[in-house]
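Anyone able to model this chain together with iron/sulfur cluster?
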Amino acid sequence: MAKVAAIKAETYDEQVVELAMQTLLDELGGISEFIKPGDKVLIKPNMLEGLPPDKAVTTHPEIVRAMINQVKGAGGIPLVGDSPGVSSTLKVAEKCGILRVCQQEDVELIPFNDKVEVPFAQGTTVKKFVLAKAYSQVDKVISLAKMKTHSFMGVTGGVKNLFGLMVGTDKAQFHLRMKKRSDFAGMLVDLAQVVKPVLYIVDGIIGMEGHGPRNGKPKQANILLGGTNGFAVDLVMAEVMGYKGETMPVAAKALSLGLSPRMKDIEVVGSGRNIRLEFAKPRNLESLDNKLPAPVVDFFQNQLTARPVIVDCCIACGRCAAHCPPEAIRMMDNKAVIDYQKCIRCYCCQELCPADAVKLQNGLLLKLIRRWK
Ligand code: SF4
Ligand code: SF4
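re: yes, here you go
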C-alpha cells in the first residue's frame, strides 16, 4: 500500500519546518532510506517566478533549507536547481529567498541552461525528453513542490513540478504538441517515470487557491506532505484542497495506466492526515473531457474549454505575447490581443501575467453543456 505522510506545521519558522520535515521523513523510514553517503542530490523546488515567499507562488525557502539539511545529514551532496517560467534562475532564486538559503547553507544553485536527451521508449505519450543536463549529473532527484491550483491541470504538486526540468522555451513546445489536457497529463506521467524522484515533498503550509499557479490567493493550509509515489502524494494533496483527487488530469491518466493507487488504497499517516480544506477552484477545473465522447471533444476542443480574455488592467508588458506557444497574442494599442483561431487554451498567458489581466471565460456552448449536464 502506498504511504503518504501528512504533517501539521503552522508557520515557516525555521525550527518548526525542520521538525515537520524530520517527522515527515521519519514516517517514511528516515532520510537514509532514500539518500546514501556520497549521493549527489538535485533538490528541485518550484521557482515559477521571482516573487516573495508570502505570495505562495514558489516553494518556501525554509522548506528548501530543511531538505538541504536532511540530505547533508544523510551524507549526501545537495544541489538546488530549476528553470523558471520567466527570467533567470539566479534572479528568481534571489527574489524568492532560495538564493539566500543556498548561500547560507553553502549549496550550489544550478541554472538549467545545458540540455541532455533522455530517450524513453516505453513512454505512452512521449518517447524522448530533452531535460536540463544537471539531471544526468546527479544520483538522485527530490521534487520539492508547492501546493497550488493550476488552470490547465487543476492542481500542481510534486509531479507537475518536474516540468521545470525542461529548459526555458522547451516548455512551450510541449504545450504546442500536447494541446489536449489528457495528452499534457500523459506527458507529465511519462516525465515522472523518467525522472523517478526518490522523494516528493509538497509545501502546503501556505498554498495557493483560485487562479493558480501564479495569480491565485495564498491559503493557509498548515500541512507538509511527502511520499515516494508522486501520484499518491498529489492525490492526497488534491483531496486536502477539497477536490476529487482522482478526477485531476494527471491522477486520472496515472490511474488508467496503473501507476497510481486509488485514494482508498493510500495509507495517509501523520498529524495532518485529517486536514480537509476548501480551496477556491481555478476557473477551468472541471474538464468535460470525461463526460463527452472523445471525437466530440476533439472537434469542439476550443468551444469546450474556457477562453482567456484580456481585461482592462493589462499593463502591456508583452510577457504573454513572448511566451504564447502558438504566437496567438499581439500587442496592439497598448494592450494584448488574442487571436482565438490560433489559441490552444494552454493558459500560459494567465499563468505568467504579472497584472492578473488574463481571465478565463466560458463560451456559450460550454455554459449550455454545463447547465444540461
Ligand atoms: S495581459 Fe498580462 S502579460 Fe499580457 S501584456 Fe497585459 S499585463 Fe502583460
Ligand atoms: S493566448 Fe494564452 S491560452 Fe491561448 S495559446 Fe496563447 S498562451 Fe495559451
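The mean pLDDT is 93.
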